[in-house]
């Protein structure tokens, strides 16, 4: 038998420990995956979006600050680094495709990178978003760690940029496959490249489910978009604003 | 799974640790170089390039490295959940400027995908000279189906 006081104590203890939020993240993701598979992999039931939604509701309801949550979730977040390095494996497996397509790849990535930053900044500016928001938007298609660095150097808010990067990833994961089907693009390289370009790692994860070739091209786009955007965004902002 | 049972089991268990260590050490070297030289690249991206160079030198990844990478990359989506929850910190701004932000992100994502895909297809036809795209049937590793990940390796 547990008294109310005892339960309260357990909650106070657990809610501050990394274990609870690590477990919550894993369970939320598993529920997201279950819904995703149950809906026949509808892009609208994206597991990352669903898991984040459940966890945001949980944090708001229990009045838990994000820093407390992140204390537990950081163990999962940390694996992004080694996972990025692991992209070397598909890249190596498809090295022949990559070498053959080096020039088209470069052209597409420069075009995509400039489109991503310029269009986001332009639309947000026209719709009356404030300066900080607009600047934080510029690197939104880049993978989180690089995007935050770019945001800081151009006067944006790094944590706001991180949030926008995630919204972008989810938009890309939900609407990207539909758009590619609608545009009748069947080349796996073009699919992966565009998904990785617009939606970084989240797009890469989705491309992986299309085919390993699409996944590795998405990985290349994600890795190099960071580099191109870091160089292009300061120039672009000088021109646009 | 059957092929794993042929050799001493500890060999494959340690090989997995070796693959993980390789990934982490590549990232570490990447971070050290990036911070030492103030490069505008993130450490893991440099680590990725390092690992490709390592594969080129060694003639490719070991089978365990291949399996380890496939397992990690098949679950890539999970790794983005903690960052996605970070949106909760900016609720106020999303409430006041939400429409502008979401419309900008949506329009930009659609444009970026279309421009990148068409630019690649155009440039590939113009400069690639390879003709048809290499066709690949379906994902070998289905990240949301835990049953299909076995049996890909073949006997050593």
UniProtKB/TrEMBL annotation, chain A:
Designated name of the protein: Putative murein hydrolase (TIGR00659 family)
Chief place where the protein resides: membrane
Transmembrane feature ranges: 12-32, 44-62, 74-92, 104-127, 157-180, 192-211, 217-240
Top-rank taxon, per record: Bacteria
Keyword Protease (UniProt): no
Alphabetical list of InterPro entries matching this protein: CidB/LrgB
Gene Ontology MF terms: hydrolase activity
Cellular component GO terms held in the UniProt record: membrane
Compartment(s) where it occurs, according to its Swiss-Prot or TrEMBL record: Membrane
Membrane topology: Multi-pass membrane protein
Sorted UniProt keywords: Hydrolase, Membrane, Transmembrane, Transmembrane helix
Automatic annotation (TrEMBL), chain B:
Example of a GO cellular component annotation carried by this entry: plasma membrane
Transmembrane domains' residue ranges: 40-57, 69-88, 100-121
Membrane topology: Multi-pass membrane protein
Keyword Membrane recorded: yes
Compartments, as annotated in UniProt: Cell membrane
Residue segments, region Disordered: 132-156
Chief site of localization: membrane
Keyword Lipoprotein attributed: no
Alphabetic keyword roster: Cell membrane, Membrane, Transmembrane, Transmembrane helix
InterPro entries listed in its UniProt record: LrgA/CidA (IPR005538)
Pfam families with a match to the protein in the record: LrgA
Designated name of the protein: Holin-like protein
């Amino acid at each position: 038998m547990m008294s109310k006081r005892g339960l309260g104590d357990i909650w106070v203890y657990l809610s501050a420990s990394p274990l609870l939020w690590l477990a919550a993240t894993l369970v939320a993701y598993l529920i997201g995956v279950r819904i995703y598979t149950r809906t026949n992999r509808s892009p609208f039931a994206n597991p990352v979006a669903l898991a984040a939604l459940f966890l945001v509701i949980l944090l708001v309801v229990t009045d838990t600050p994000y820093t407390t949550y992140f204390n537990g979730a950081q163990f999962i977040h940390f694996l992004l680094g080694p996972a990025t390095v692991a992209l070397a494996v598909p890249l190596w497996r498809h090295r022949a495709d990559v070498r053959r397509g080096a020039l088209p790849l470069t052209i597409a990535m420069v075009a995509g990178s400039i489109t991503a930053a310029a269009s986001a900044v332009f639309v947000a500016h026209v719709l009356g978003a404030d300066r900080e928001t607009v600047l934080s938007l510029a690197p939104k298609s880049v993978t989180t760690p690089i995007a935050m660095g770019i945001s800081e150097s151009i006067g944006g808010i790094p944590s706001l940029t991180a949030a926008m990067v995630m919204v972008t990833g989810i938009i890309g994961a939900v609407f990207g496959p539909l758009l590619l089907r609608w545009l009748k693009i069947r080349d796996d390289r073009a699919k992966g490249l565009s998904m990785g370009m617009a939606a970084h790692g989240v797009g890469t994860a989705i491309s992986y489910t299309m085919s390993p070739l699409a996944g590795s091209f998405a990985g290349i786009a994600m890795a190099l978009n960071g580099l191109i955007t870091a160089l292009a965004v300061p120039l672009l902002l000088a021109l646009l604003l | 799974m059957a092929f794993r049972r042929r050799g001493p089991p500890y060999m494959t268990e340690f090989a997995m640790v070796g693959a993980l260590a390789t990934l982490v050490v590549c990232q570490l070297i990447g971070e050290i170089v990036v911070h030492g030289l103030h490069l505008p690249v993130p450490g893991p991206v440099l680590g990725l390039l390092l690992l490709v160079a390592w594969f080129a030198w060694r003639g490719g990844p070991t089978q365990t490295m291949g399996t380890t990478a496939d397992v990690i990359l098949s679950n890539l989506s999970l790794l983005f959940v903690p960052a996605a929850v970070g949106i909760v910190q900016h609720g106020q701004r999303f409430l006041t400027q939400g429409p502008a932000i979401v419309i900008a992100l949506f329009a930009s994502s659609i444009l970026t995908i279309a421009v990148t895909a068409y630019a690649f297809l155009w440039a590939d036809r113009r400069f690639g000279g390879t003709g048809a795209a290499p066709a690949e049937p379906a994902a070998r590793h289905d990240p949301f189906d835990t049953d299909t990940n076995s049996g890909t390796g073949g006997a050593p």
